Amino acid sequence: MNEQQQPLRIALAGGGAFGAKHAAALRRIEGVEVAAVVSSGSESARRFAAEHGIGRAAAGLDEVLAMDDVDAVVLATPTPLHAAQTLACLEAGKHVQVEIPVAASLADAEACVAAQERTGLVAMAGHTRRFNPSHQWIHRRVAAEEFSLQQLDVQTYFFRRSNLNALGQARSWTDHLLWHHAAHTVDLFAYQTGSPIVRANALQGPVHPELGIAMDMSIQLQAASGAICTLSLSFNNDGPLGTSFRYIGDTGTYLARYDDLLTGHEEVVDVSGVDVSLDGIELQDREFVAAIREGREPNASLAQVLPCYRTLAELERQLTG
């Protein structure tokens, strides 16, 4: 860090699984201080702060937003809180990165974009797939006109027949296949094709009697370029978990699994030189920090990802109309 440069002081809201990922990532970025953490309660925040070497534990987001020595906030909180907390951060003069999804409705996502435009602050969404080295490798080949995407086939599978989080702990809110998990792929497809989505169709399976959500979903997309995407999602899948992406193009086929990339013949593609880290969350956080320091719009800004939420709203209309 330049001797004249003050550390960027970032508060972390959310003491769960993704909060821990961001805490670890931010510690690896030079010139960044995790200044405070707020969790679901004071005791939870104190415990998280102790575990991750964070100096202050706050009782609530309002307390963090009142701190003069906090420059920015990373929101890794429950989905239903994202939009309201994003607005609160911006109105308090704090740069903000909000984990995916920005909101669970188009109107709320649009309100967040309007607040960013009004304040001029950096406001970024945690659309991590833009930053995973595997997907970056594909993106660079597309940009260099060495690979033209024809079809993206994606499977997003979890086993969540009860309301538990990634750590196996009870959730106070219900996750959603469309507004959370489909958002990753809807945004990634448009980003990788460099072309807006012009057609979108969706089907869903039975609604869970207790959780109140569809546990299985199928989505079809088409970009203006002509490329197509097929996305299958399930909370019923009792087997290998996570998301896999099959890129089918004019010069090859590639399989992306988070930060790993293989050819269609299961040969490992070396992505170690794509960026300074193999951790997509760290690269996402590095972009947030760099955009603040450089006074520019970040990759995955709220404005850039807004078309994704327009597509999700159209899909929701089909499913509920």
What does this structure look like?
The structure is a single chain. This protein is α/β, with parallel strands linked by helices. It folds into 2 domains: 8-128 and 280-299, Rossmann fold (3-Layer(aba) Sandwich), CATH 3.40.50; 132-274, 2-Layer Sandwich (Dihydrodipicolinate Reductase, domain 2). Helices cover 35% and strands 24% of the residues. The chain has 9 helices and 13 strands. The protein has helices at residues 17-27, 42-52, 61-65, 82-91, 106-119, 133-143, 177-193, 280-294, 302-320; strands at residues 8-13, 32-38, 57-58, 72-75, 95-99, 123-126, 149-157, 197-204, 216-223, 228-234, 242-249, 253-257, 260-263. The strands form 2 sheets. It has a 7-stranded mixed sheet with strand order 8-9-10-7-11-12-13, covered by helices on one side. A 6-stranded parallel sheet has the order 3-2-1-4-5-6, with helices on both faces. Strand 4, helix 4 (82-91) and strand 5 form a beta-alpha-beta unit. Helix 1 (17-27) packs across helix 8, helix 4 (82-91) runs parallel beside helix 5 (106-119) and helix 7 crosses helix 9. The longest helix has 19 residues, at 302-320. The protein is globular. The relative contact order is 0.15. The model has no long low-confidence stretch (mean pLDDT 94).
